[in-house]
Each structure stands twice: as structure tokens, then as C-alpha cells.
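Sample 1 of the test manifest.
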Amino acid sequence: ETGVTQTPRHLVMGMTNKKSLKCEQHLGHNAMYWYKQSAKKPLELMFVYNFKEQTENNSVPSRFSPECPNSSHLFLHLHTLQPEDSALYLCASSQDLGGHQETQYFGPGTRLLVL
Amino acid sequence: DAKTTQPPSMDCAEGRAANLPCNHSTISGNEYVYWYRQIHSQGPQYIIHGLKNNETNEMASLIITEDRKSSTLILPHATLRDTAVYYCIVREGTGRRALTFGSGTRLQVQP
């Protein structure tokens, strides 16, 4: 148990659906991240938030829309996804950005399948 | 951030020490060495990190060479539950960028 929870753990959705992934951290951290891990590929950083402000967007398509209402919660809103978006979506948090305060703690992930 | 090179896979016998190497020959003075692991279909787990000195915690030891161009993660008594992909990551200590994961080393602990 890392103190980072993600729901749902598994999600199947059609290409016309809208769904949201939720991440919550109970560690008092200020920074939160979304990563994508496709089959047989390295982790890809998608978004970074620090103190609720987005600090990094790694050219992620607009069909992925993050939301960070406070430092403890992070959402990833999904709409009109493609089958190639099927992947494990991981949330992480760290005390801060930069330096050794950036030890990241990961949630268990949401396994997404787009049909 | 400096690039790292790790062998794609390694085997280790249960109960023996697992020594996982990482080359980071372009590391600069303010870059830390981090190790994470990912057990199949789970989120990555932080193991240990260091700057210059060797480090030890309850999970592992990190040995960094004097020139800092390579490091070794040591799991002193590997168990079957240590079977995972191990990632060596080098990043700047003062930058504001997040960690970048490469392909890692797939460690298979054999019974």
C-alpha cells in the first residue's frame, strides 16, 4: 500500500463513451502525475501537476483531459478514445518537483480497454 | 537528464544476491540515481536513490562508482516476489521535470 489509490482498477469503454479515472493520494504531497503504459512499451509521462497547477503536458491528445481540483485528487477525463489508447494508466504523487523530494509513489493503475 | 543503459534481462537464484548494473556515463554532478521496480501489471515501486555515496535501506543497497558513471542495485537475498522489471533513472536534482522511465532490466528469480 503506497498511499495512492486509483479507481476504477479496470475499465472497458466504447469509442463514443465518456469516462473518468480517479486518483487520490493520502500522503500530503504537492505534485501529482499521470502516466500511460502500453503493452511492451516504457512508461510515458502524460501530465504533471504541482500545487493544483499543470506544469507539464507531454503532447497528449485532447481526448485526454486532466483535472486537479486539489493537491490530493487527480482526474483523467476520457472521451472519444481510440482502441490504441488501451493501456495501463498510472497515477503517482511526490512531495514536490525537483531534487530528492521527487521520490514518486505510484498507485496500482487502471487497466483500460477501448473497444 | 543523463541516459542510462541496463541489460534487458537477468536471472538470479532464490536466496542469492541479485546484482543489477546500470551505466550512466554522461551523468553530471547534480544528477541523482534512482531505482524503481515494477511487478507485473502493478504500479512502479520506489526502491532507493543516491547522489554520490552508497546507500542502503530495508529493500536494497545502491553502490555508485567513484566516477559516478555506473551503479549497481543489490537485492541481498532475492525471493520469488522480487521478480520484476527494475528501472535505473538518472535525473537532475534541481530541475522541475519528472522521472523518465526507460526499458529497465527484467529480473527473473528462479526457485
